[in-house]
Give the backbone structure.
Amino acid sequence: MSIRRNSLSKRGARSGKAFQAVVVSAVVFVLLGAGDPATRFSEIGHQMMCICGCNQILLECNHVGCPASDGMRNELMASLTRGDSDSLVEQGFVQKYGPTVLAAPTTKGFDRAAYIMPFAALILGFGLIVLVIRSWKNRPAPAIADGLSPVRGAELQQFRDQARKETDL
Amino acid sequence: MAEIGSFALLLALALSVYSFLAGIIALAFQKRTSSQLVGVTAGTSGIAASGEESSLITTLRQASERIGETARRAGIATFAAVLLASVVLVICAFRDDFSIAYILHHSNRDLPGPYKFAVLWSGQEGSLLFWSLLLAAYGFVLRLRYKTDPRLFAYASVVLSGVQIFFLLLLNFAAHPFAIVQGTIPADGNGLNPLLQYPEMVIHPPMLYLGYVGFTIPFAFALGALIMKYPGEKWINITRRWTMVTWAFLTCGVFLGAHWAYSVLGWGGYWGWDPVENASLMPWLTGTAFLHSVMMQEKRGMLKMWNMWLVFATFWLAILGTFLTRSGIISSVHAFAQSSIGDWFAWFLAITLIVFVFFFFKNKSHLRSEHKLESLVSRESSFLFNNLLFVLLCFTVLWGTWFPKISELVQGNKVTVGAPFYNRVAIPVALLLLILTAVGPLLAWRKTSLESLKRNFMWPTVGAVAVAVFLLITPQSWGSPFGLKPWQDISYFYSLMAIALSVLVTLTVASEFYRGGRVISKHTGQGMFASMVQLTHRNTRRYGGYIVHFGVVVVIIGFAGAAFNQDKEMEMGYGDKMTIGPYTLICRSYTDDDAPNYASEWAVLDVYKGGKQIDTMTPVRRFYKASRQTSTMPDIRSTLNEDLYLVFEGLNQDNGHPILKAHLNALVMWIWMGVWIMLIGTVLALIPNAPAPVRVPAPARLETARTAPVVTGD
């Protein structure tokens, strides 16, 4: 019993370390390359919409003489040069152009629902399927005609092996 | 001419109404007389009166059959009438008959012939007429093939007539394609939208519409089978083939649309997650789910209710897509299609939903099936998860499309739901689906031992991991997709995962062909390739399906290339240089030109790679005279590795120099190649199986049973 507890606690410690490693990797993963102004310009510029009505991402708007995109790009560059944080840049744009300037809903308030719903549906659907499979698995086998009995155990395995041998590698 | 067209449309409506009503009466009488006949023969046999009663019922039955036949013929005649109206509209376009408002608004004298033909589907009224024509054409084929199962086809025919009535009502009373211009008739038309003046415009909408409209047929069969409580799974067999054909058309239409956007819109991308694009994707996703889950019903008699709902959802989402386009309820770049007929579609959607839900709950006991699952590790389970992910992807797209409206209702302000949202939400789900695509084919029906799964899965996994490591350690200077460092950007992580999983799927598909081919080769002594061909021919559906899977992974690899895209914009005078990726562009000239339909400005650029000239490219910007609108015609140089995509954005007004934008889009050609492979796989899956000659002697215990031919299962 004590050996088992010991091995469990060791396993727990190991999984704890693994979790820490995953968290550290994730943080490094997120932070690496985040400070480069050109990368930030490209990243934030791809999170914004051009407001001229073309329905295109700010950095993808290709209208020469577009009344909006050039000015918006300059504003974005100016904000980054000032050293504004990503959220400050976004807030500034939202205040000036309204919430539709962001190419995707934010992760605040009701907007969060946009992201939560698909994953909630995934979890719900996954749970439902597991329940369905379990209930189907626990159902009794269908009745078999008189005189025949279902093949089970070693005999079934023998047939499986034979089928595999004849149809498989 | 306009009078002939209008008359043809009215006639088509009258014929459809007749086909619908007479069809219902005939079916109702047939049902009643059948039950009475059973009652008479069972309950009153031997009594003289029963003979008279029986003959009366037989007469009534014959009469109802005759009425049913007239309904069928009226359905066929509807096609002739709608075809006449369509031909008249096209003739009017070629004759530049600007007295018809539709022709005035969508054509002009100098419009090239193929686009005059395409006028039929270039605007609202015409596209509704085209929709109606395709529906009538599908109905025509269905009614000609009625002998396959007269009763089921009669029910399906009634459902089709119901849908046809809706479109003909729209055409006759809300969006008349033959409406006459009031007052003075202009000398020339307003012209076709410049974005639509591209060769693919001639085939993209017909393909998309063949897909959209085609899903009416599975729906008609499904609803018919539900109403008549159709015994057995034959309707599913009939529906599956129709669905596969329709699915192929929709696939073709969706990707032609992507290619058109890529080649014409000039922003360098092929998919913008616009509501109208989403509208075409949603029925494709549920249709694909149905094509998978239908196998569960055929092989195991499972998921009858679910399949019914999937067929309905696919049809309903196709109509919803049209509603989104026409109603203007959600803002879209496809604003040219907006109008007031959205209300009609909303009502139609509501009515079809009510009718379907009513019959579903009325007859759902008929759809009960004995679900029995032996193991979680089985083909059945994989199909369940596959369906979950397809439906979830569809839900995500639907949710994202409607979220701006929902946000407006809840918090009073609209939000934009664009590519960043879908990249965050849909890509992880799509990657899960890719894993299932790899695992699914390795699972057997009923039960798969973990040992066999491990054995079949090991080498493909090793191959996929090896490719991933190779892409990780190679230098980025080798070009895309090498040097993928997932910690640098989340898009690199997704790309690496997508490519690795694509390799996994490819290897599992290849191993399936190899294993099957080897068995046949061993039995027949044929070479491996000939054995694989024979294997495919013996079970076209299964191996055609695998080829479709392979096409999908090729498309996915193309999508994964988006992580490496680069672009650069520059004003270029004579001799100016621009470098992007491995290419150097030198502006040799820029000039303008004049054609009857448009004026154009273009630049001539020499393309160098590794110090050697490899091409000369000419991006163009056109100004269409009739519509007074401009449009870009990007020049694209495609290779397997990347596309060099040049856009003539305009002229600097001060010095007259052209402003050019260059995109380097990685692996885009893989997308178009993948689509071809998907279509080849679908065509292959539609070919009937060759008879299986391999026979296995029955074991001693089953000596009394007939020796059955062994075929490979799906």
